[in-house]
Design a protein that fits this description.
The structure holds two protein chains of two kinds.
Chain A lengths: L5 H12 L19 E7 L5 H4 L6 H7 L8 E2 L5 E2 L4 H8 L3 E8 L7 H10 L11 H9 L4 E2 L15 E2 L13 H10 L2 H14 L10 H13 L6 E6 L15 H20 L6 E7 L19 E6 L8 E3 L19 E2 H13 L3 H8 L9 H5 L1
Parallel strand pairs in A: 1-7, 1-8, 4-10, 4-11, 5-6
Antiparallel strand pairs in A: 2-3, 4-9, 8-9
Chain B lengths: L2 H9 L13 H8 L7 E2 L9 E2 L8 H20 L7 H11 L2 H14 L3 H13 L9 H12 L7 H9 L2 H6 L11 H8 L9 H10 L9 H11 L10 H8 L18 E3 L2 E3 L4 H11 L2 H16 L5 H13 L4 H14 L8 H12 L20 H8 L22 H17 L6 H8 L3 H8 L4 H9 L2 H4 L5
Antiparallel strand pairs in B: 1-2, 3-4
Helix pairs in contact in B: 3-4, 5-7, 5-18, 8-14, 11-12, 15-16, 15-17, 16-17, 18-20, 20-23, 22-23
Classes of the chains: A alpha/beta, B mainly alpha.
Amino acid sequence: MPKLNLTRREFLKVSGASLFLAGVPLPGFTKDKPPGTISVIMLEGGMDGLTAVPPFGDPNLMNMRRDLTSTNFLKLNSFFGLHPSFQYFGGLMAKNNASIVHATNFPYQLRSHFEGQNLMQGGGLSPFSETTGWLGRALDLAKTPGRSLSLDMPLLLRGSEKNDNFYPASIKGSGDLMTQLIDTISMAHKDNESETFKKVSKKSTQREVNIPRDPASLAKFAGKAMAQDGGPLASVIKVDQFDTHARQGAEEDGRQGARLVIIDDIMAGLKEGLGDAWDQSIVLTLTEFGRTVAVNGSEGTEHGFGSAGLLAGGAISKSRVISDWPGLAKNEQFEQRDLMSTIDYRSVCAACIEKALGLDHDLIASEVFFTPKLTRVYDLIFS
Amino acid sequence: MNEQFRVAQKLGLMFRPETPVPDDIKSWAIKQLHSKSPALGVSSSFSKKIKEWPKNLQPNLEKRDAMFRLYKVNRKKENEGLEGQDTPQAIQINYRKNLMGVTDELKFAHRNVYGNDQVRLRFASFWANHFTMGNIHDNQNEIGHAIDKAILAKLNGNFSQMLYKVTSHPAMLIYLDNIYSIGENSPKAREMRARGEQAGLNDNLGRELLELHTVSPSAKYTEKDIKNAAKVLAGWSLEHHNTIQEEIREAGTANTWDMYKKHYAEPGVKNVMGKIINQGKGGLKEMTDFLASHEHTVMFISSKLAEHFISDNPNASDINYVANAWRQSDGSLDHIHTAVIERAVQSKEPKFQWPMTWLFQVLRLSEASFLNGWDQRFEYSDSLMRNSDIFVELGQGFWHTRQPNGYSSDKNEWISGEMFERRIRFADAIYRKGKPKHKAQGIMDRIGANDATRKLVANAGNQQKQFIALMCSPEIMGLEHA
């Protein structure tokens, strides 16, 4: 693990406290085990792919984004760089355990956070068309549960009713949960509510240790749970505040840069928690859209279209930047303002499902994404 | 539950034991829209006396602005190690003396638990959520003011007035970045560009004004409409890094709720969804008035109101009833809210209650002392949770950092093992630490609990378990048909 300096740690502690976090587990589940695990890091607000993975080989980058581009990026190849916030992720790339997909998005071209977030989680053909999420449907098809570590249940994981969420409670004055009482309450409720109380009752018999709430520790917890025999195969971690309309910054301490550090830390936490299970794992990021190519009037960026996706895990055997680069010149931009998306990110998600859950691409395309002709990009990522 | 408590659950916060329960519940609810609304609370968790919050803990906007500017100055000294501002004591004093978030959030909890204006407070919460102003630190002195003065104090006016006052409030201008937006062809932008600085529009508030606060995406506005809305908004700005003298020089006023900096504004008329908006300060009012009465706004918000108050699955006739009241009264909130009340009373469908509403209702029904008093707001106690932690653990709070679409009223968004576990844990903690005056049996008799609830409580066990079972019953959670 690369050495992380103290200031960086301290910053994480502060920012972590205000985060909405998510993770995994549903113990006691045994079945024919699919080949691997899948972890999604949801980035709310629109990650700036051009800041995270600057295409320094494109002459227009510095013309348009000098103030948003780190002077200290790591060169990945002759064209793409990596933001210095990604110390750990950079190490994974060097070990052929991580890749990047660039100029990519779900096929959503409007710029609403909430439609975009709904679509990236629901995976439907239009916003608000689905009541279940693509990962939830994939887990249903693989007949395996997942459990999200956040206070609300993200749409992404909805599908199977066995999916559950978990976020450590800290309510002063409350005692041990009383199984029999909760069973009694459960019986007084109907339908979904009754089932939900039943889950609480079941959980009350499992003593959870105190889990710290910073992103890295939650990720580690999630990784450990997934590494257990019969543990869950999926986890979701949510990071917010990528919506940097003003004073976005360029470096690690900037508003985007500081968020990227959190992604990096989650990657490190997952790897540590997963241990040997890392070898069969895939981690991917998800964001609703990228940000405008041009800087706006307040040293920030507006909602855009194409962004970048970060992939990591032992399931990757060769690091690369996968991109059909559209260019940053005005006439190459989407609607003359945003990075174009040339790779459908649903295809990337589908490839990760195929790898981790062992499902057939055609099945994923039609049952998970309702798009039978969805392009298969598996070989681009995993060959 | 009897009809009085059923309605108080849907539209209010439940009757506290010391208040009489009215016979004609519908008339009472409508009258509540005009009830006096002082911020009531207690000075300490041991105190039995409910009083009005002290004036010195409710500073006006000018004072709040000054406090935040001072806070910033002290922070700067702290970072530079000047004037002893970097000692732990000085840092704590700066935080406690000059920031309002903790105090305002406690006042909000108090008035919901102790107030006599329960229906007003519920509508105020609906609008505070509709116009989400998340705490991004720099606006924490203004959020509470916006809820009190731009929402609660405007509850009997027209929707267009509330829209204008919220949109131009510093809590919103800061939250959605409008303070950074400068018209591209404004004198200020030209000046800044001449110095080699970035200057131009920030469309965040313009976008959410259309998408979330008024017409919604169903109106099919374009990216250009969003940009033009941002142009109308450019100039509505304040800067906490400035001294107030600098602000007066730039805006001609010290009033940050009416702060329009002319030389930041985009010159020329603007076209927003076909409506021509004049240049100048009056443009914002022209735009918000236009959006406030737009048919898509009427339908969008009528649906949201119905889903929040009438039932978990409001039907088209419920929504149309509210929308018609809106159209016929040209947006009078009294008429709109009355329509909501009429339909909520008429509908026997259940309405699932938010975690924070549930907490307030449980505390009112049981008269538990679960909240710290205002004198204790910065104290750490072994038994009671800090107020801000209560909202964190509930997973809901108006002083949380959160996305501008706010909290959903859809019950499915709230049904999960984790959220339900928290209800049980809170009921338990309230029983153990809040020492409720009323036990499950007494509460059930008072509200006229149904047989299923009585059976559940009878099977639960001791007093403590009975209390938990009652508070987590379908009836108290808002899951049961009348």
